[in-house]
Specification:
Layout: H1 29-41, H2 46-57, H3 62-66, H4 70-76, H5 85-103, H6 108-128, H7 141-148
Helix pairs in contact: 1-2, 5-6, 5-7
Length: 149
């Protein structure tokens, strides 16, 4: 499948190993669930939780050990963020691009990139509307800047 905003074709990505269980992992399922909950209460995103578990605690895959993804665990423990992290990251990028364009009016390349990022945001909003976002939620640049701060 082709990339969204480039003329390049997609590249195959690396795949996780097909291990059903890692015998060298010291943590039990309950310990991993407690670690995920503690890291979420510290304010880390799903991606940061996965990185911390991998790098600091030696957990190769949360889903392999617990049978559930990090986001499902956070939803069950009622510590899931209000907005999806993918959407928040794109909104942060759009806000920083707008700030850059206020100082650099003639930067046409970044004006195009802002348009691409906002297109991705609107596409994600369509996907999440009614699931993780309210039915009447709409993207606007001013409200997004307040949301990220």
């Amino acid at each position: 499948m082709a990339r969204l905003h480039t003329r390049k074709k997609g590249r195959s990505a690396s795949h996780k190993p097909a291990l059903k269980s890692a015998g060298w992992v010291r943590q039990s399922k309950e310990e991993v669930l407690a670690l995920v909950e503690r890291l979420a209460k510290e304010g880390k995103t799903e991606a940061q939780i996965g990185l911390a578990l991998r790098d600091e605690h030696g957990v190769p895959s949360v889903k392999m050990i617990t049978g559930k993804s990090v986001s499902k665990i956070l939803e069950e423990k009622k510590v899931a963020p209000k907005y999806p992290s993918t959407l928040i990251d794109l909104i942060r990028k759009a806000v920083s691009l707008r700030k850059h364009l206020e100082a650099n009016h003639r930067d046409k390349q970044n004006r195009k990139k802002l348009n691409d990022v906002e297109s991705k945001i609107k596409r994600l909003v369509r996907y999440y509307r009614g699931k993780k976002l309210p039915k009447d939620w709409k993207y606007s640049a001013e409200e997004a800047a307040l949301l990220v701060k």
